[in-house]
């Protein structure tokens, strides 16, 4: 457990915002839901499972006898794609729009549920033709385009777990994941549009697969029309393969615990963890929370999660949750400032978005750009706002409420993690009186607490470690190929209890404030990265002798990466070295991992046992007085570092 951390003190927040009465009057969920779930948690989750269509009903809700390996909805059989697509068409909703796709350059596509059924069936047939069988893993490295959804659902339809790799990751990140996951089929595109330029996805895949002959086929969507290299034996255009397939595909049903997908996420070591989600519980969790937290009315809402499908937020709240609920969503390919800084608000106005879900880092960026920009658009259709990915500071919360929500939209600050699968802690918009910056309380059916070091629940007014004390349907089931790491990472700090790795605090009213990671995991713009991952990228460079990375507070991105490096003798020119290292990290992990600053230092602060004291480096990076140095093996190291800093300024 982290021992170098102190839980940040918080002043009490006195502002509270009751749900607007007209909102509360029409809300999907009332306060009774909490009572119902408290009285009979398992019965509650049995009832919520009825949101989903089961080919064979389950005969037991939860089997926790082999904890921490959970089984939910035992004996149940279902198909995730059927639940997200076909059943809505069968119910006569084929003409309902599933996605309003908006390309960055302004090209658009409207995809109905009937379209989705045809496209998913064709794609499923295509994968079968390539020899993909239930249980085989398929990797996706895609832009934010409808084909990404078709491919995910096609995988789900045939029981082949997908592993979606964020389009901003490097070739090395792809290679690691393909290898760890035993992938034989990769789906990608020639490129996608970002900031008015095209990014070379296919070229990155080519590089990643250089030494991975295990990948039999690469299916390539033509999105940008840019030049690509071609391997005739391996590569196949999506349009050549998928377009000629039959529009119907026979369904097969899978066990509730059949793996649905694997999503890699950073942990405290250099090696990303393959977080595995299964079918039944995940669909119940995402469908229920999407309906309850976002108060979804599928007939009238236009829902927009402004996140990338390559992260769990996109999996759960662009794809599975909204589709399971038969919702109409917006799917936007690009960045918020292309071609202009009003792009998001233009989209809200154009489609009449009613519920918007995004990250605090975006909100802080919009704050910086100024209120005049959103003020130019008609955003009166918005009725609810959501936040996710990192703690939202009260100023950003208030700005979001006023300048985006017109002071009459409830805000749901939703806490959850890739591991959780679905939102766990959040206000309910028709029930909860919200406070700027607080995630408030666990959702019905979820049991959260805050523990001290000894595993005792803390009192209101105190902080500690956030834990989930009972299993929940959408929880991860294991880490791909590493059961030991699964047990150790999440279930060993406090036996039998899920350890989230976040610090949290109960305020005087007993409401939860999530404060951020207590381990060596960084959160940059809501993206998770580990210090160890970036450090190992740095030391892999021949110029670097040693490296330490810390997350320093940043006004826009929440945290920013700052690296301290000791150079080898051979590295002559410092400025040149810093630039080279920056490029090197970007190439090894991806642009999101690029350090804000790289400081060349003569030595690193270490304890007598050789552990780097990152806390002290964080003090330097955040321009604070240096904390206690008495446990350092050599206290003069910090003087030398500070001198170095002063000399550089
Ligand atoms: C970490 C999980 C789940 C979607 C995106 C991130 C932080 C997430 C909140 C929130 C404070 C939050 C936590 C968590 N986090 N939501 N509402 N308030 N912190 O998924 O990459 O798995 O990261 O994001 O630190 O542990 P992820």
From TrEMBL:
Cofactor(s) this protein requires: Mg(2+)
Cross-referenced Gene3D superfamilies: 3.30.300.30, N-terminal domain of ligase-like
Matches recorded under PROSITE patterns: AMP_BINDING
EC number: 6.2.1.1
Domain AMP-binding enzyme C-terminal: 533-611
Sites bearing N6-acetyllysine, chain numbering: 611
GO molecular function: acetate-CoA ligase activity
Main EC class the enzyme belongs to: ligase
Residues that, per the record, bind CoA: 194-197, 313, 525, 586
Transmembrane segments: none
UniProt domain Acetyl-coenzyme A synthetase N-terminal: residue ranges: 32-84
UniProtKB keywords: Acetylation, ATP-binding, Ligase, Magnesium, Metal-binding, Nucleotide-binding
Disordered: region residues: 1-20
Top-rank taxon: Bacteria
Binding residue positions for Mg(2+): 539, 541, 544
PTM field: Acetylated. Deacetylation by the SIR2-homolog deacetylase activates the enzyme.
Binding of ATP, residues: 389-391, 413-418, 502, 517, 528
All copies of domain AMP-dependent synthetase/ligase, residue ranges: 92-472
Sequence ranges of Basic and acidic residues compositional bias: 1-17
UniProt catalytic activity: acetate + ATP + CoA = acetyl-CoA + AMP + diphosphate
UniProt similarity note: Belongs to the ATP-dependent AMP-binding enzyme family.
Known role: Catalyzes the conversion of acetate into acetyl-CoA (AcCoA), an essential intermediate at the junction of anabolic and catabolic pathways. AcsA undergoes a two-step reaction. In the first half reaction, AcsA combines acetate with ATP to form acetyl-adenylate (AcAMP) intermediate. In the second half reaction, it can then transfer the acetyl group from AcAMP to the sulfhydryl group of CoA, forming the product AcCoA.
Record protein name field: Acetyl-coenzyme A synthetase
């Amino acid at each position: 457990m982290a021992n170098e951390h102190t839980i940040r003190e918080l002043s009490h927040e006195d502002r509270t915002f009751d749900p607007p009465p007209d909102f509360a009057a029409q809300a999907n969920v009332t306060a009774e839901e909490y009572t119902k779930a408290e009285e009979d948690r398992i019965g509650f989750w049995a009832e919520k499972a009825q949101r989903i269509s089961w080919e064979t009903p389950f005969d037991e809700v939860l089997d926790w006898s082999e904890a921490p390996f959970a089984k939910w909805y035992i004996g149940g059989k279902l198909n995730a794609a059927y639940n997200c697509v076909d059943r809505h068409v069968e119910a006569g909703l084929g003409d309902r729009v599933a996605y309003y796709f908006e390309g960055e350059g302004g090209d658009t596509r409207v995809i109905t549920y009937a379209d989705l059924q045809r496209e998913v069936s064709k794609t499923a047939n295509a994968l079968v033709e390539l020899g993909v069988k239930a249980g085989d893993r398929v990797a996706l490295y895609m832009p934010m385009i409808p084909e990404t959804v078709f491919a995910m659902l096609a995988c789900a339809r045939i029981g082949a777990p997908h592993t979606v790799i964020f389009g901003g990751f490097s070739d090395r990140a792809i290679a690691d994941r393909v290898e760890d996951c035993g992938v034989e089929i990769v789906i990608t595109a020639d490129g996608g549009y970002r900031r008015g330029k095209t990014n070379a996805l296919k070229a990155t895949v080519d590089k990643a697969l250089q030494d991975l002959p295990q990948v039999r086929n690469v299916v390539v969507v033509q999105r940008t029309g840019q030049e690509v290299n071609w391997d005739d034996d391996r590569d196949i255009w999506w349009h050549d393969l998928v377009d000629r397939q039959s529009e119907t595909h026979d369904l097969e049903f899978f066990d509730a615990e059949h793996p649905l997908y694997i999503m890699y996420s950073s942990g405290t070591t250099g090696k990303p963890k393959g977080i595995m989600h299964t079918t039944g519980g995940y669909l119940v969790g995402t469908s229920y929370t999407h309906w309850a937290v976002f108060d979804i009315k599928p007939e009238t809402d236009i829902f927009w999660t402004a996140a990338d499908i390559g992260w769990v937020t996109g999996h759960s709240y662009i794809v599975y949750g909204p589709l399971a609920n038969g919702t109409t969503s917006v799917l936007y390919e690009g960045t918020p400032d292309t071609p202009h800084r009003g792009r998001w608000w233009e989209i809200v106005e154009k489609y009449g978005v009613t519920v918007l879900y995004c990250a605090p880092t975006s909100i802080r960026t919009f704050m910086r750009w100024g209120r005049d920009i959103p003020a130019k658009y008609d955003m009166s259709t918005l009725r609810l706002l959501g936040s996710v990915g990192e703690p939202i500071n009260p100023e950003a919360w208030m700005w979001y409420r006023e300048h985006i929500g017109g002071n009459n939209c409830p805000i749901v600050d939703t806490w959850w993690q890739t591991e959780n699968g679905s939102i766990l802690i959040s206000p309910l918009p028709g029930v909860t009186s919200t406070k700027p910056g607080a995630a408030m309380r666990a959702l019905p059916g979820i049991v959260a607490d805050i523990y001290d070091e000894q595993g005792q629940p803390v009192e209101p007014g105190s902080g500690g470690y956030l834990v989930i004390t009972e299993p929940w349907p959408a929880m991860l089931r294991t880490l791909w190929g590493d059961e030991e790491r699964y047990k150790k990472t999440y279930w060993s700090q406090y036996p039998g209890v899920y350890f989230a790795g976040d610090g949290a605090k109960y305020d005087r009213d007993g409401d939860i404030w999530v404060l951020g990671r207590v381990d060596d995991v960084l959160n940059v713009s809501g993206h998770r990265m580990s210090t160890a991952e970036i450090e190992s990228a740095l030391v892999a460079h021949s110029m670097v002798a040693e490296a330490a990375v810390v997350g320093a507070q940043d006004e826009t991105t929440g945290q920013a990466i700052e690296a301290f490096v000791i150079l080898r003798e051979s590295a002559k020119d410092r400025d040149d070295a810093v630039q080279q290292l920056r490029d090197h990290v970007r190439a090894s992990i991806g642009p999101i991992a690029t350090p804000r600053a790289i400081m060349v230092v003569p030595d690193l602060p270490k304890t007598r046992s050789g552990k780097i004291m990152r806390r002290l480096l964080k003090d330097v990076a955040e321009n604070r007085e240096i904390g206690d140095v008495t446990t350092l093996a050599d206290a003069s190291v910090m003087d030398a570092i500070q001198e170095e800093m002063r000399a550089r300024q």
